[in-house]
Amino acid sequence: MIKGLIKFLLTVVLLLILAIIYLSVVGINTDKFNNQINKSILEINNKVNLKLSNVTYLLNPYNFSINVTTKNTQILIEDSKIDINNIKTNVSLKSLINDQFSIDDVQISTAEVKINDLIFLIRAFYNTPQLFILNTIIKEGVIAVDTNINFDNQGKVKDNYQIKGFVKNTRLNLLNKSSVKDTNFSFDITRDKYSLSKISAIFNEIKFNSPLTKIEKKKDLYLIEGTLLNKNQKLESKDLKQIFGNLINYPDIKKIEFSSKNDFSFTINKKLKFNDLKVKTTIDLDQLTILEKRINLKPYFLNATEEIKFEKQKIKINYNKDKLTINGNGDIFLTDKIEQLSYEIIKNNNQFLFNTKFNIKNNPLTLKFLEYEKKEGINSTISINGDLKKNGSMNFKSISLEEGKNKILINNLELSPTFKIVDIDSANVDYKNNKNIINKISLKKDNSNFFLEGDSLDLAKLIDDIMDSEDENSSIFQKLNTRVNIEIKKTYIDEINYLNNLTGYINFKNNKINNLKLDSLFPNNKKINLQIDTNEAMETTTRLLTDYPKTLIKRYKFIKGFEEGYLDFNSIKKDNVSNSVLIINNFKVQEVPVLAKLLSLASLQGIADILTGEGIRFTDLEMRFSNQKGLTTIDEMYAIGPAVSILMDGYIDAKKLVSLRGTLVPATTINRAIASIPFLGDLLIGDKTGEGVFGVSFKIKGSSKDLSTTVNPIKTLTPRFITRTLEKIKKN
Asked: Residue 449: what pLDDT?
């Protein structure tokens, strides 16, 4: 009996052991517990159902639980379904025996499913604003996921979950209307940490990939860091417009080819606000072509085109908080010939610093305002260091140009937003201009005053520009109020003529000369003095005196062969209206084309021959005229000489229209005319008697380049002409 009982018990134990081994290794397939599993799922979330089949149960004797596995399952959420390759979970035997079936953990391996369907499922268990936004911006794509989720006794997800998988062919529409397509990556997600690897995507037509991007939650923020790579990216203008639209103000880029590596990190809060952005970028710029129509480079580079090309540029960009640093160097094409450019740009909060070096060898360079020319094949370096202010003004700490012995250096030049000079500390120039004249001077600031001194300076172009300017407000300064003390050993007023020991001063008030006094000598020791004074009534008086006017008259191309004489010029200017008197005594001219034409038309060929031969002498010339807004009105110009005399008036409208009229009389006719005046003629002329009165009335009208001249003989001189002649004769 006892043996039989023992044998029975051993048999039972053996069968139990075999059953446990079988259930632990092979398990059983049944659908008996499907309803209980669904019930447990519904207890977690009543919107989720499982369509189960082929459920396998394996006993886990170590923790007194059953591992449940199902394949080819579907998760149903409202109208969506997700195909699952397999689901594994662990069920407590105690809860099963007590009919309190509960799930401890779930391991899910999905097939390739739609991303939005999966997000919908996750939100059913773990809904967050981030998942809602993610579901909004993702428009298409598939995902495969291996998930390991543990639940507590209340069916809530524990923090030790892990999600792995990959994403394929995803398209996102971002909040700023940008798009990301063809996105592929693998991911590994644990609590507060997201790891994305092998990322490839196209962002607004820009292809990039990333070996690794990490996302980590820290308190209420997410820290995102990673690397983006671009290789052999080629974009045209239409692509850039599609990418950026009106988000940034960029020049008209025709084409760009580049590769880049971008290391980045930033934080983002729950409201999707970005902070603490850090970027380190290295760019290999193969080519960048810009169509630049706003800046005309032809005055500086004769063969300049509208296209500016950057090639083989190495660029490094660092951005940390509010500080941006850009360093670059490479080739630049302003023409069809290569030059070298290097640069550094730093933006720190509201401060914008720049440092540029431009090496020019293969192109000629022209700076017309300095009359400087660099020939092709000669090295020249332009360096610019400065900063851009918040209000748009610029401060150039230094601007330098070096080409062999030619050197130009400007320190602390401040320009207004309209490119007017606000201030300057110093300037030093030492170069030979295109007329082979050496300019060697220095400008130094002392408190609010300046000192301009040096060995040699060519002022010819500056004088021409001042004389040709029609704009009263054409100053290059913003608001100039200073005194400039001048001491220059040699000052050129044209290619040949110069002044020695130019000394004096100029006082500026609100960009205008308030008073001035300059003295100098010509090489023949003849003097020249210029003085300007402004009184309390804002009347500006100018006086120019010289006993060598030849070099000044030479500027007027219609007078040739001017010799000798003494010049006295006086002018009073108020409210942009000037009234002037020009007096020149004891001079002669060799050729005045208009005057020669008048004499020829009047059949006074002998005098015309003299005027185009050795010259004709005048004892006196006096001209009274006024200027206002480009209009010169000649009230009277009277010249008298042994051979001929002229009385003339009219106007010249800013070189557009000339209208002059007057009387021209040979000197013998004047004598005879005056001699015919009773008593007065005998007194002034003596016994000479006239044989009749003869002169020429003329009119000159038209543009400065196309003058029309008419001449009519006159038999009787006007009283005005006789009066002016008598005044001159009495004076002499």
From this structure: 92
